[in-house]
């Protein structure tokens, strides 16, 4: 008697076969594969399983690589937020964070962010 298998549930195409993500290049490939699986209208059971594994592998890589606060300082977080939101130092001045000189000193790491400034920044960026 020849064993039979359901090809729909056991066959995973090599192009979507999960692998351990160790580099940014592999991470980008994993994102691309998972995105294509996510938007596929009808996934096989094997593709569903592969998609689930990809999500776990991607999350593990992101948690290991992009841990918030690992190398962050208040200034680096501020600069990242400013860049992401397209906010300039002049915009922060207009929003009442401080004078242009104070903001420049904060952004250049020569002055800390006060509690009042932190609250104002939170209102701006959240």
General description of the model:
The protein is mostly helical. Helices cover 62% and strands 0% of the residues. It has helices at residues 7-10, 24-39, 45-65, 74-85, 89-94, 100-107, 115-125. Helix 2 packs antiparallel against helix 3. The longest helix is centred in the middle third of the chain and has 21 residues, at 45-65. The model has no long low-confidence stretch (mean pLDDT 87).
Number of helices: 7
The averaged pLDDT comes out at 87
Percent range for β-strand residues: under 5%
- How would you characterize the largest beta sheet? none
SSE pattern: HHHHHHH
Low-confidence stretches: none
**Number of β-strand runs:** 0
Give me the oligomer status: single chain
Q: What is the approximate shape?
A: elongated
Q: Report the end-to-end length measured between terminal Cα atoms.
A: 65 Å
Radius of gyration: 23 Å
| Share of residues in helices | 55-70%
Which structural category fits the helices and strands? Answer: mainly alpha
Secondary structure elements and their pairing?
Elements: H1 7-10, H2 24-39, H3 45-65, H4 74-85, H5 89-94, H6 100-107, H7 115-125
Helix pairs in contact: 2-3
Report a brief summary of the structure.
The chain is mainly alpha-helical and 126 residues long. It has helices spanning 7-10, 24-39, 45-65, 74-85, 89-94, 100-107, 115-125.
Identify the notable features of this structure and list them briefly:
mainly alpha, elongated
């Amino acid at each position: 008697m020849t064993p039979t298998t359901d090809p729909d549930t056991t066959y995973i195409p090599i192009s979507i076969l999960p692998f351990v993500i160790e580099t940014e290049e592999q991470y980008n490939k994993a994102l691309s594969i998972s995105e294509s699986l996510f938007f596929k209208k009808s996934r096989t059971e094997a593709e569903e399983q592969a998609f689930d594994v990809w999500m776990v592998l991607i999350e593990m890589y992101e948690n290991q690589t992009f841990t918030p606060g690992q190398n962050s300082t208040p200034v680096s977080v501020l600069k990242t937020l400013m860049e992401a939101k397209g906010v300039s130092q002049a915009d922060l001045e207009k929003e009442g964070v401080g004078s242009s000189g104070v903001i420049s000193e904060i952004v250049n790491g020569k002055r800390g962010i006060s509690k009042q400034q932190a609250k104002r920044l939170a209102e701006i960026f959240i």
